[in-house]
């Protein structure tokens, strides 16, 4: 197996081969998770700590379940109510946790680059569960797994990513992953929600949703955060839904068999029409949640293997290459 | 005592020339320049063919007094300056407690008095640098303020700025502005573009600098103020600057050595020592600004010395402090531009020594008979690898840590007194 990274900090650092390795293993975990007895000992004896500096329900639950099914001891730390409030810096928090000898740290933080910084200071494997507006790599991997299972491949597809691209770490990670796997990526957003310089990433940029959706195989909707809805970035919720909300009329521009994705939680009637989200022929939103657990199991399993190997080498007196 | 410096490559930033010759120093001043022999009973120093230039006048150095002496004191800054060939420090007022009243200015003047290099002080333009009420510009000038600035804090109320500009103009005071649109730059930490988007960091358009400059220049035209733009770092701001100069406004501009030698991509994986205000720019801008220094559209190169302690830099990029130390690395970093063939040594010293002194009305910065004997002897080719923990500054936040550099200060003289000697 070719997967060698020590941490999963972002899609940026993964090769197409790494990505395929994760998806192949995740496929096995999808079947595994559908059994009645779903427990393995891949992480038995290992400690997984989930540090969420930002609120999260679904991602944290998904990581917790993934760790438990792999047999790890899982601890959740609600960082908003902890020592951070007492003025402890991120690095001190990291050093404190490091002294407890965890094996896997799952971290979400509101600042871009914060997880990279933390990873430099600890001796365990670190998984980025979302840092600021930077990356959310497991989301991109679970989206890729969903697409591959629906479409039979994860290359040469036309994928439209629509909505608040500027503030979205999901969009960044997906853009990088889909680009690495040689897909055609289109970004659709009003100019106020489009990051600058994105055209240089090798994607196509649209502010007209109908044009952008034309012949798309996959339509990925992004969540519009409440605080962006009033006046600052878009004139109003209803104008946004009119121009950028996914409804049957706009979806008709995409391919007949196009799938609809959303990382959740959804704002029905803002970025997506409720009937589309619930259409079992088009929407794969529930599948995404299922794939999430499998992908996170695959990632943690692979990182744990590398961690064991590195520690074995260190014990044998070899230097880490 | 008479000092005789012989066999030096003399850099004259006024004539933009390099010649080999000797210098006689008497009473702290340059008494003679040429190929004369040593006067009787003069102390002779052989320069071994190395380069001798007017000492650097560093316009805009932050020192942590009052309030943050653990980051930099006048003493540590002066030691760093001497080691970096800086003979005059122009200290900034953007300290923890702003230098915005005559009493505070007198205090820092006393604190700085016994430093081995010259230290002159600027004062805040508005109280607390808050952009609401102007400071006592007249009193502050009386106790020695050489210029007025609110640092990187941009006044949002144009009316306040107009009044401060016209009042300062009536006193003949120099005001240093930070050209930046305050609305566009608020909350941003890098220059917008592909790199900022990839890293997920809030970016400011380079246009914000031009917008800030255009506003300030319009006010200068209204008030007749003597104005210096502290940092011009983008290509698009240059035409506005050139137009103002051509129209006869009393305007000059500067740029930091960091913006001349580094670009936006150097931030890499969120390296906070590269977080600066204004943020590092794209390579095209860097090259355009170097060209503008060569043409004289940009007048001054400074270190933008901004000490920050380890704690304030060991944070996620957005939360980390902005700024880098530069007193000791200004000269070797400038040598990168020389070795790359982008600027000559006389052009560099015109921007680092002559122009800032001239702008402040100081007699320094010249290699001429009668000028103060503030000199730096250096070897532009001596290579070294920078170790930040060997810096004399109390703060070690340099973007050049572990960088390969060329250019070492061999000796520094202030008023004819040798204040630094290289250990080698």
From TrEMBL, chain A:
Pathway as given in its UniProt record: Pyrimidine metabolism; UMP biosynthesis via de novo pathway; (S)-dihydroorotate from bicarbonate: step 2/3
PROSITE patterns named in the record: CARBAMOYLTRANSFERASE (PS00097)
Domain Aspartate/ornithine carbamoyltransferase Asp/Orn-binding, residue spans: 157-302
Presence of keyword Iron-sulfur: no
Limits of the Aspartate/ornithine carbamoyltransferase carbamoyl-P binding domain: 6-148
Residues annotated as binding carbamoyl phosphate: 58-59, 108, 136, 139, 264-265
Catalytic activity: carbamoyl phosphate + L-aspartate = N-carbamoyl-L-aspartate + phosphate + H(+)
Binding residues annotated for L-aspartate, in chain numbering: 86, 169, 223
GO molecular function: amino acid binding; aspartate carbamoyltransferase activity
InterPro entries named among the record's database cross-references: Asp/Orn_carbamoyltranf_P-bd (IPR006132), Asp/Orn_carbamoylTrfase (IPR006130), Asp/Orn_carbamoylTrfase_sf (IPR036901), Asp_carbamoyltransf (IPR002082), Asp_carbamoyltransf_Asp/Orn-bd (IPR006131)
EC numbers on record: 2.1.3.2
Top-level enzyme category: transferase
Annotated keywords: Pyrimidine biosynthesis, Transferase
One Pfam family hit: OTCace
Quaternary structure (record): Heterododecamer (2C3:3R2) of six catalytic PyrB chains organized as two trimers (C3), and six regulatory PyrI chains organized as three dimers (R2).
NCBIfam families tied to this protein: asp_carb_tr, PRK00856.1
Recorded family membership: Belongs to the aspartate/ornithine carbamoyltransferase superfamily. ATCase family.
Name the record gives this protein: Aspartate carbamoyltransferase
Organism: Thioclava indica
TrEMBL record, chain B:
Amidohydrolase domain ranges (all copies): 342-420
Highest taxon listed in the record's lineage: Bacteria
GO CC terms of this entry: cytoplasm
Sorted UniProt keywords: Hydrolase, Pyrimidine biosynthesis, Zinc
PANTHER family: ALLANTOINASE (PTHR43668:SF2)
Recorded GO MF terms: allantoinase activity; dihydroorotase activity; metal ion binding
Lineage start: Bacteria, Pseudomonadati, Pseudomonadota, Alphaproteobacteria, Rhodobacterales
Top EC category: hydrolase
Name listed for the protein in its UniProt record: Dihydroorotase
Gene Ontology process terms (BP): purine nucleobase catabolic process; pyrimidine nucleotide biosynthetic process
Keyword ATP-binding: no
Enzyme Commission code(s) on record: 3.5.2.3
Record flagged with keyword Hydrolase: yes
Gene3D superfamilies (UniProt xref): Metal-dependent hydrolases (3.20.20.140), Urease, subunit C, domain 1 (2.30.40.10)
Domain Dihydroorotase catalytic: 49-234
Pfam families (UniProt xref): Amidohydro_3 (PF07969), DHOase (PF12890)
Organism: Thioclava indica
């Amino acid at each position: 197996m070719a997967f060698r990274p020590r941490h999963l900090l972002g899609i940026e650092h993964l090769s197409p081969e790494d990505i395929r390795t994760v998806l192949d293993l995740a496929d096995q975990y999808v079947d595994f998770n559908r059994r009645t007895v779903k427990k393995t000992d891949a992480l038995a004896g290992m400690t997984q700590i989930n540090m969420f500096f930002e609120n999260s329900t679904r991602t944290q639950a998904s990581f917790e379940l993934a760790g438990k099914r792999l047999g790890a001891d899982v601890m959740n730390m609600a960082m908003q109510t902890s020592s951070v409030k007492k003025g402890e810096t991120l690095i001190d928090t990291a050093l404190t946790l490091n002294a407890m000898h965890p094996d896997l740290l799952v971290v979400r933080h509101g600042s871009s680059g914060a997880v990279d910084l933390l990873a430099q200071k600890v001796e365990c494997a670190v998984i980025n569960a979302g840092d600021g507006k930077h990356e959310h790599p497991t989301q991109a991997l679970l989206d890729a797994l969903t697409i591959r299972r629906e479409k039979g491949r994860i290359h040469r597809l036309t994928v439209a990513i629509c909505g608040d691209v500027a503030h979205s770490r999901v969009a960044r990670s997906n853009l990088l992953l889909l680009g690495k796997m040689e897909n055609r990526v289109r970004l659709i957003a009003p100019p106020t929600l489009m990051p600058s310089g994105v055209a240089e990433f090798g994607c196509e940029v649209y502010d007209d949703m109908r044009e952008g959706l034309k012949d798309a195989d996959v339509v990925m909707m992004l969540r519009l955060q409440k605080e962006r809805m009033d006046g600052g970035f878009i004139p109003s919720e209803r104008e946004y839904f009119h121009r950028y909300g996914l409804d049957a009329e706009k979806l008709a521009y995409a391919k007949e068999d196009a799938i609809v994705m959303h990382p959740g939680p959804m704002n029905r009637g803002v970025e997506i029409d409720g009937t589309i989200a619930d259409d079992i022929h088009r929407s794969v939103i529930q599948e995404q949640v299922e794939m999430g657990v499998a992908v996170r199991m695959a990632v943690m399993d692979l990182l744990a293997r590398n961690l064991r190997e590195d520690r074995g080498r260190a014990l044998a007196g070899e230097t880490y290459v | 005592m008479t000092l005789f410096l012989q066999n030096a490559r003399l850099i004259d930033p006024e004539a933009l020339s390099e010649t080999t010759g000797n210098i006689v120093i008497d009473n702290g001043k340059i008494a003679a320049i040429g190929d004369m022999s040593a006067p009787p009973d003069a102390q002779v120093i052989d320069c071994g063919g190395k380069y001798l230039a007017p000492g650097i006048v560093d316009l805009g150095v932050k020192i942590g007094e009052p309030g943050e002496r653990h980051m930099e004191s006048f003493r540590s800054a002066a030691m760093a300056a001497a080691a970096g060939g800086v003979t005059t420090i122009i200290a900034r007022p953007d300290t923890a407690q702003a230098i915005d009243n005559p009493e505070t200015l007198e205090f820092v003047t006393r604190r700085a008095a016994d430093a081995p290099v010259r230290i002159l002080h600027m004062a805040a333009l508005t109280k607390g640098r808050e952009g609401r009420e102007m400071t006592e510009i007249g009193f502050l000038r009386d106790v020695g303020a050489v210029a007025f600035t609110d640092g990187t804090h941009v006044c949002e109320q144009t009316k306040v700025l107009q009044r401060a500009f016209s009042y300062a103009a009536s006193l003949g005071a120099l005001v240093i502005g930070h050209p930046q649109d305050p609305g566009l730059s608020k909350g941003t930490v890098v220059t917008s573009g592909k790199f900022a988007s990839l890293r997920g960091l809030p970016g400011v358009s380079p246009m914000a600098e031009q917008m800030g400059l255009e506003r300030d220049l319009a006010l200068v035209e209204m008030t007749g103020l003597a104005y210096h733009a502290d940092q011009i770092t983008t290509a698009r701001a240059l035409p506005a600057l050139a137009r103002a100069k051509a129209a006869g406004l009393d305007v000059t501009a500067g740029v930091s050595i960091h913006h001349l030698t580094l670009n936006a991509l150097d931030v890499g994986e969120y390296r906070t020592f590269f977080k600066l205000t204004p943020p590092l720019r794209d390579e095209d801008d860097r090259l355009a600004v170097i060209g503008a220094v060569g043409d004289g559209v940009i007048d001054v190169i400074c270190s933008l010395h901004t000490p920050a302690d380890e704690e304030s830099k060991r944070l996620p990029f957005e939360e980390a402090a902005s700024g880098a130390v530069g007193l000791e690395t200004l000269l070797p970093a400038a040598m990168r531009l020389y070795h790359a063939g982008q600027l000559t040594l006389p052009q560099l010293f015109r921007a680092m020594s002559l122009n800032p002194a001239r702008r402040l009305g100081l007699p320094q910065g010249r290699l001429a008979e009668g000028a103060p004997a503030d000199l730096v002897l250096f070897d532009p080719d001596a290579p070294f690898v920078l170790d930040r923990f060997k810096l004399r500054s109390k703060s070690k936040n340099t973007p050049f840590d572990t960088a390969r550099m060329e250019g070492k200060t061999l000796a520094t003289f202030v008023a004819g007194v040798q204040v630094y000697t290289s250990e080698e």
